[in-house]
Structures are given as structure tokens and as C-alpha cells.
Amino acid sequence: MSTTSVSISQKLTLSGSSSCNPRLAQAPWEFDAMPGYGPGSSEADPVPAHAPTNAEARPGQLPQLYRELPEEDLHERIRAAKEALGEDLVILGHFYQRDEIVQHADFLGDSFQLANAALTKPEARYIVFCGVHFMAETADILSSPEQSVILPNLAAGCSMADMADEDSVEAAWEEICEVYGVDPQNVTPDDDGKLPILPVTYMNSSAALKAFCGRHGGIVCTSSNAETVLEWAFERARRVLFFPDQHLGRNTAKAMGVPLEQMPMWNPRRPLGGNTAEDLQQAKVLLWHGFCSVHRRFSVAQIEKARSEHPGVKVIVHPESPMPVVDAADASGSTDAIRKFVAASSPGDVIAIGTEINMVNRLAAEYPDRTIFCLDPVICPCSTMYRIHPGYLAWVLEDLVQGRVNNQIVVPETVAAHARVALDRMLAAKPK
Ligand code: SF4
């Protein structure tokens, strides 16, 4: 596993005007109830019966004290609570998380690496996930029943994951199955032994959608293994419905040779997703109309500018970026692939990266003998990751010391069991 065990103690600041709204970094609680910043999929969270304090721990309920404490005091309190909790606690930090939080994390990684990192700490009763909602759900699905997964701020959703909700996907599935003349609750193989359609969900999706895939013969993918997963799917089905990220689906299928004409977009607000029945018959990959608001900001013009200003620059972008951007880059890959790309470069190299600014800044600090910069100099960080402010972390940790579990993420076992099926299929899928 390439998860990084964190020993970072330096504090990095965001460069220039990299934050869309500086208040988001300083006081995210002011945004928790605002339209467009709401709790998204966390609205559906069940309140754990054994943790009644959770009923009060909804977004925006951060006690006033933690909004007002100076940042240094918050860090002191976090360190003290960590020490008090000892082996009972593991803190996970996503690559895109702000450095004020990462400095307290025991592990740094992408969402799936972090869920697996938690498995290496079975003695930890509390898994505090400094990422976004779907990541905490995955950690809960994979952790033991004795462990509690905590998301310090329930408003830390993922705008991409929220673009595909369970009801819309169920409705799309029924429409699609009707076109193919199959029972949506029991899709069976045609005479050639292949299913007419199979669902594939990106890891960045709710537990309910992972369970949907588990129930319908489908599978989960990450940005590291999307091609392997699509190969697995095409061995079993003639088509896939890929959600929620159209760009990862398109970039991956295109690299495998699927023509663009066979990748219609499914817009859940339009009949047949905005397609004709003939489009759907000819389709190989039906792409859900979702995207990442961070990665869709990268453009070919930014790459051209980087190339003209830095001859010889190497450009790598995340596959959640639009297809023309991936095509114009020298390489594309997951957060882990980007880290490896930088690690494999040489002193003096110039590298332009198309991914979240916190990760780029951290790589630039780790490799000071290279010139590393973000393609978009005014890129917004992932605004939902920013909801995890040290105030929230101090609050949940100090309450844990007192035996109070706030903001626990609980995936009901009926959902988790099916989601595990789809995750297990992913783990069993091997590259050709
Ligand atoms: S970077 Fe994009 S996909 Fe990742 S958590 Fe943020 S909004 Fe979601």
C-alpha cells in the first residue's frame, strides 16, 4: 500500500488567491447551511441508536467555543486529545485536505488507501476521517462493528458524489432496462452469455449506489483501476452504466478504444437521459452527467500556457479532468499515480499538475529541487474538504475523550452488505 504514514509537521499556506473564498478556509461553519454548500448525501445519515448525542451533531452545530479559539490553541487541544486517546484513535487525512489538518493525521492517502489503512489499526475504536462523506462511509463499510467512523463536519460532502442520488439512478436503470427489454430487478444474460447492461460506480459515490451495484451484478472502481474494472465489466456485459463522473468514464473507455459515439451521456433530468432508444442500443458506455467541480476547471489553454512559459515542462492531470485536457497532457493518473510521477522525476524538472491545490503545494514542498506548480494558478481547493477545520477536529476529539461520539457515519448493514459485494468484485478484478 502506498498510503503515506504522516510525519509532516510543517504548516503550508495556500499560495496567492488559491481559495475561492478565504472565509471558507477560516470559518467553514458560516457556509454549512448555505445552498450549494449543504450536507448533500449526509442528509440521509441514520442517527446511531447507541450514540444519541449525534442527534445534536448536525452541520452548523459546532459549539461556539471552537469557532472562537485561536488556531494555535486548537492545535494544542488536538494534540492533547490525541495523546489522551492513544491507540483508541486513528486519524485519516485525504491528499486534498488542508495542511492544518494533515499535520495531525496518522495516514495520508486517497479514499480507498485510507479505508484500507484503517484496517491496519483494528485496535482503534475511533476512526476520524478527515475527508468527505462518501470516504467515511467506505471506511465504515470496511471497518469492524466495534469501530466508530467519525466525519468531523457532516457538511463535508462531495459535490460529484451528490450528482448521482439513489432515486435518480434507480429511475434511470428502469428506463434503460425497458429499452433493452429486461426486468430491472433481474437482468439476465442474453443468448451470448452477456448481460445487456451492468452498473459501474466510481468510489466517489454514496454507499447506497455501491449497494445498487452490488445488487445488480455491478462493481466499484477507483481512478487507479478504472480500466481493469471496465475490462471486467465488458467480459460480462455488452454495456455499462458508469456513474457519477462522466470524465473518468469517458477518459478510461476512450483509452480502451471505445468510440465517442458509443458513449452517450445520461442526463437524469431528461427522458431516456436525453438520448434516443437507438443511441442506447448502440451504446457501450452510458456516462452519467456528473463531474468534479475542482477538476473540470483545468483547460487546454492552461496547458498551452505552461508549455510556452516553461519549455520542457511535463504535464500530468487527474482523469476527472475533461477529455481534451487529458489528451493534451503528457500523462494522466490518480492521486497516487501523480505522486509516483513526481517521485520518478529528476532534480531540475518542471512539472505542471492538474489536481487539487493542497496536494500540489504539498508535492512542491516535498520536492524543493523541482519546479512544481498547479496548472490553474487561481484554482479553488476542494471546497467540501475545506469543511474540516481544526475547530471541528478539536471538538470531535475532545468529546471522544469525554466518551461522546459526534458525527458518527453509520451505513446500515442492509446497505453495507451489498456495497461490500461490489467492493469485493473490484478487489478481485485483476489487470489483464
Ligand atoms: S475533489 Fe472533486 S471529487 Fe474529490 S471530494 Fe472534492 S468535489 Fe469530490
UniProtKB/TrEMBL annotation:
Catalytic activity: iminosuccinate + dihydroxyacetone phosphate = quinolinate + phosphate + 2 H2O + H(+)
Sorted UniProt keywords: 4Fe-4S, Cytoplasm, Iron, Iron-sulfur, Metal-binding, Pyridine nucleotide biosynthesis, Transferase
InterPro entries: NadA, NadA_sf, Quinolinate_synth_A_type3
Chief site of localization: cytoplasm
Cofactor note: Binds 1 [4Fe-4S] cluster per subunit.
Involved pathway(s): Cofactor biosynthesis; NAD(+) biosynthesis; quinolinate from iminoaspartate: step 1/1
SUPFAM superfamilies with a match to the protein in the record: NadA-like
Cofactor: [4Fe-4S] cluster
Assigned EC number: 2.5.1.72
Gene Ontology terms for molecular function: transferase activity
Pfam families, sorted: NadA
Binding-site list for iminosuccinate: 94, 111, 202-204, 223, 318-320, 335
Residues given in the record as [4Fe-4S] cluster binding sites: 158, 292, 382
Transmembrane among keywords: no
Region feature (Disordered): 1-20, 31-62
Subcellular location: Cytoplasm
Function: Catalyzes the condensation of iminoaspartate with dihydroxyacetone phosphate to form quinolinate.
Family: Belongs to the quinolinate synthase family. Type 3 subfamily.
NCBIfam families named among the record's database cross-references: nadA, PRK09375.2-4, PRK09375.2-5
Designated name of the protein: Quinolinate synthase
Biological classification of the source: Bacteria, Bacillati, Actinomycetota, Actinomycetes, Micrococcales
